[in-house]
Write a sequence for this structure.
């Protein structure tokens, strides 16, 4: 079996690349999917539908266009990793975690100790909480390779 792992969350660090490299080094049978990680492209995903003078409507259209991708990728993944970074609030990542929980899709949260309290419900539904990409790789090694 090749595990389909959806990567959700912050886009300002190389955590996705660290996960991919760790899985490649351990020859894990995984494939990764993700939301669009180009911030400007994601923010402008709905621009092809016409310009908006009010920011809310631009964001509304772009969120819906982006949701076509994220909804399908989450619904078809075996596991999600949801990363909450230090620099910005990742409301979209919290939404993705809630969607995974509603679908019964297992997910791992990845974040520092400084946001334990605000993420208590998100972590409460997660199958694991990791603080480093390396810990996530170790979880994946166990889940995928142990018999």
């Amino acid at each position: 079996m090749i595990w389909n792992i959806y990567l959700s969350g912050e886009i300002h660090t190389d955590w996705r690349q660290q996960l991919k490299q760790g899985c490649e080094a351990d020859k894990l049978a995984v494939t990764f999917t993700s939301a669009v990680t180009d911030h400007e492209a994601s923010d402008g995903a709905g621009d092809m539908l016409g310009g908006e003078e009010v920011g809310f409507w631009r964001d509304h259209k772009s969120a819906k266009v982006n949701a076509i991708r994220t909804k399908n990728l989450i619904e078809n993944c075996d596991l999600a990793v949801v990363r909450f970074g230090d620099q910005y609030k990742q409301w979209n990542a919290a939404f993705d975690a809630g969607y995974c929980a509603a679908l019964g899709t297992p997910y791992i949260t990845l974040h520092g100790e400084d946001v334990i309290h605000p993420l208590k419900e998100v972590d409460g539904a997660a199958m694991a909480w990791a603080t480093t990409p390396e810990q996530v790789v170790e979880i994946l090694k166990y889940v995928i390779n142990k018999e």
About this structure: The chain has a mean pLDDT of 96.
